[in-house]
Structure formats: structure tokens, C-alpha cells
């Protein structure tokens, strides 16, 4: 496999784009050799759902699209990032706050750590942000 592989899709900031983002990432990973029954697939599916949902719900219509980037470095490190053009960075809610939503970042952080990875948030040059995760690559190396 190549030292570096990338894939990207830009979708409208619409709730219907959440399952499309999830499907896209899972198909890309399958193409790179991650079996559909690998343990990490369900975690990745949920992480992508939460990242995409956050990009749709928390941009308040100020980001007409969001982009999902997937990258694999040397069959070792998987990175998945969701970029939107809204300038506000995600905030972690206090545990005592009782709400039906707003727990996405907590879920993402927990699942990412459970898989041995890490979460990061960075601003883009255009004034938006990218929320990304990095995970150890869980697929056997194909030769």
C-alpha cells in the first residue's frame, strides 16, 4: 500500500448528509483494507456520525457545506477530520448540564480514546475549524 492515501468529500450542511458522510468513510476504509466486521468500524461509524452532526447542527446555517477528509499514513495512522466554515470552536458541556443534545464531543473523545487515538480541533486559514481524530490503523497490512 502507498505511504499516504487520502480521500475527501464535501456535503451540504443538511441532516441528510450525516448518513452519506458515514457511508463514504466506511466505504473508503473498506477500500483500504479495513474489514467491515473489524471492531473499530462501529466506533468509526459513530464518530463520523457525531462529527458530521456537529457540523450540521452547530454552525447555525453559517456553513453551507462541510468536508470530510480521510487519510492513512504508512498503514499506521488513520485520520478523519470534518471541516466547516463556522468560526466557533466546539465547547464541552459541564457534566451537570441536563440536555438532550450537546454530548457529541464527549462521545467522540471517549470513543477515540477507547480506540487508542486522540481528538484535536484546529482553526482553518479561512476562519472555520476542523475537528479530527487520529487512530492507530487496525487493518492487517495487505501485500
Summarize the structure in short:
With 143 residues, the chain is an alpha+beta fold. It is built from three helices and five strands; from the N terminus they run βααββαββ.
Order of helices and strands: EHHEEHEE
SS element count, helices: 3
Strand order of the largest sheet: 1-2-3-5-4
Query: What oligomeric state best describes the polypeptide chains here?
Result: single chain
Described by the principal axes of the CA atoms, the overall outline is globular
> Which percent range fits the helix content?
25-40%
Model regions low in confidence, pLDDT < 50 over at least 5 residues: none
Beta-strand content estimate: 25-35%
Number of strands: 5
End-to-end distance = 7 Å
Mean of the pLDDT scores?
87
- Helices and strands: which structural class? alpha+beta
The radius of gyration over CA amounts to 15 Å
Largest sheet: 5 strands, antiparallel
What does this structure look like?
The chain contains three helices and five strands. It starts with a strand and ends in a 7-residue tail after the last strand. It has a five-stranded antiparallel sheet. It is of the alpha+beta class and 143 residues long.
Give the topology.
Layout: E1 4-12, H1 17-31, H2 39-57, E2 65-73, E3 77-84, H3 104-114, E4 118-123, E5 129-136
Antiparallel strand pairs: 1-2, 2-3, 3-5, 4-5
Helix pairs in contact: 1-2, 2-3
Amino acid at each position: 500500500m502507498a505511504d499516504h492515501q487520502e480521500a475527501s468529500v464535501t456535503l451540504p450542511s443538511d441532516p441528510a448528509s450525516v448518513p452519506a458522510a458515514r457511508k463514504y468513510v466506511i466505504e473508503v476504509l473498506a477500500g483500504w483494507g479495513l474489514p467491515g466486521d473489524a471492531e473499530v468500524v462501529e466506533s468509526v461509524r459513530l464518530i463520523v456520525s457525531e462529527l458530521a452532526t456537529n457540523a450540521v447542527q452547530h454552525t447555525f446555517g453559517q456553513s453551507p457545506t462541510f468536508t470530510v477528509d480521510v487519510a492513512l499514513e504508512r498503514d499506521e495512522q488513520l485520520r478523519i477530520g470534518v471541516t466547516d466554515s463556522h468560526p466557533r470552536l466546539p465547547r464541552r458541556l459541564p457534566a451537570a448540564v441536563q440536555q438532550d443534545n450537546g454530548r457529541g464531543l464527549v462521545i467522540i473523545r471517549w470513543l477515540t480514546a477507547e480506540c487508542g487515538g486522540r481528538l484535536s480541533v484546529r482553526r482553518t486559514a479561512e476562519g472555520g475549524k476542523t475537528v479530527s481524530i487520529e487512530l492507530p490503523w487496525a487493518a492487517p497490512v495487505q501485500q
